[in-house]
Amino acid sequence: MKILVLLKQTPDTEAKVSPKGDGTGLDIAGTIIINPYDEFAVEEALKVKEKNGSGEVVIVSCGPADIKERMIKALAMGADRGVYIDNTGLEDADSLTTARLIAAAVKAENADLVFSGKQGIDADNMHVGIMVAELLGWPHVNVVNKFELEGKTARVEREVEGGQVEVYQVELPAVIGANKSLNTPRFASLPGIMKAKKKPLDVKKPSDLGLDLGQLKSEIKAQIVSYNKPPQKPAGKVFKGESVEEMVSKVVKLLREEAKVI
Amino acid sequence: MKVLVFVEQRDGKIKTSSREAIAAAHQIAGSSANVAALVVGTPGDGLKDAGVDTIFTVNKPEFKLFNVMNYTAAAQKAVEEFKAEAVIGMASPMGRELFPRLAARLNGGLITDVTSLQASSGSFKGGTKPMYAGKVLAQVEFKGSGIKLATVRPNSIQTTVTGGAGNVVELAVATADSKLKTLEVKKGSSDKPDLTEAARIISGGRSLGSADNFKIINECADVLNATVGASRAAVDAGYASHTMQVGQTGKTVSPQLYVACGISGAIQHMAGMRTSKVIVAINSDPEAPIFSVADYGIVADLFEAVPILSKKLKEIL
Fold this sequence. Notes:
- The structure holds two protein chains of two kinds.
- Helix content of chain A is 30%, strand content 31%.
- By secondary structure, chain A is of the alpha/beta class.
- Chain A has two domains: 2-218, HUPs (Rossmann fold, 3-Layer(aba) Sandwich); 232-262.
- In chain A, strand 3 and strand 4 form a beta hairpin.
- Chain A starts with a strand and ends in a 5-residue tail after the last helix.
- Chain B starts with a strand and ends with a helix.
- Chain B is built from seven helices and 18 strands.
- Classes of the chains: A alpha/beta, B alpha/beta.
- At the A-B interface, strand 3, helix 3, helix 4, strand 9 and strand 10 of A face helix 2, helix 3, strand 7, strand 9 and strand 10 of B.
- Strand 15 of chain A pairs parallel with strand 18 of chain B, so a sheet runs across the interface.
């Protein structure tokens, strides 16, 4: 069984992110990590392989070259090899263009199952995994809390609003988007880290996947044109040093009379 | 410009937030004649006087439960039938599952979770989309020709539209395939709206000290008719489930009222709730960063303040 994991990198959650002076780019102060939701995807792929007794877990990434460092971390967790898609010239790609590159790689690998994180915590899009499924004509379920493989199908649960749970039976091959509560990702062991550096990490250009760079560029359909800071709020009214009863009464009154939200 | 609005239903009930998507569609379309709604799995007559001239439905029992393959087929059919140039929906669990698949199928541009549209009657240029859980706002524009798709973040668009002829048109759509079967939808533990759609939220942090102590938050939530949220620290400590987590690795919320109890205000938490219209913070530490985004702050122990808050609210609500 061949299981692919779509992995991207993001700044960590404590990173300071702000627009550059002219708004054309971002200043990011923070550590670059594996997108947190993708770690749940890696873990689930490894669990499925272990339960199955055999198979291969392949990490697929598309992005700047330093993403390979994050791929090696996933290899250290136990994945078998990596496929890095070099997106030079496509840095402004929208989700659908990225999905085209990844779908071509998934097809070339002849995968049985693909896991991704439910969303990247940078653009907060939740697009690519779902689009890959559509481009391949596969089913998908995103925001998955529970995954059980039963032969050629899987029973999958995803939580939606109000704590409701949608229960699906999905035929493989399929794309599954991992949510935080799916599992607890393992830490890379020391031998794992040693071995990771020797594991194969192939580099693919769009042309290696049968895609034309110029064509892909011309098909980009959405583009970020600028970044702005969220509007800053004026300083609020903070009460202290009075009796709690007094302070709460004042805030309740303000909520009703000034803010008019209750 | 002709705009199709994907209208959501759960348990046969049309979601009120879909009215926000219709209002967004009007910004682009200019008139009810140019706006059609699609409601799948329930009759469309619940949408009368909602600002649309045409209501497409696929009212078959096998379409009652959400199934992204079936619903994508229905949306594709409605787009073809109406010759829609844009499709608008809500950034809800259903909209987020459907729109990327529909965009890929229709080979269209997609912008999701927009908080405002860059639009005028007859033109739809793009929209503003929070990124990094709201640390920055990106201005995203469509490129080239082709259909334009967008989802709107709940509570972002405050206007409502009424009127419209509301003619119901039943679409003939076959079930997509059996690769994905919706077996059931298990009832939720709560009948309150989801955090992402809630108009009022009250959240608890790690200083609650136990899952049991969340009951003071729950009591206040009942008075306020609010949905209960939690900080990552509270979730990681096991006091609350991940579905309740507000922040960058939880849910991004924008209610009318957000009450943060015993939450210090880590960057990743504030990123997820700073677009709330009114923020109230209760914290015993006057230096807590949460006070920097609060409209109203109370420096006090939450175990003392929250029950008083519940009592005071009960008197007036």
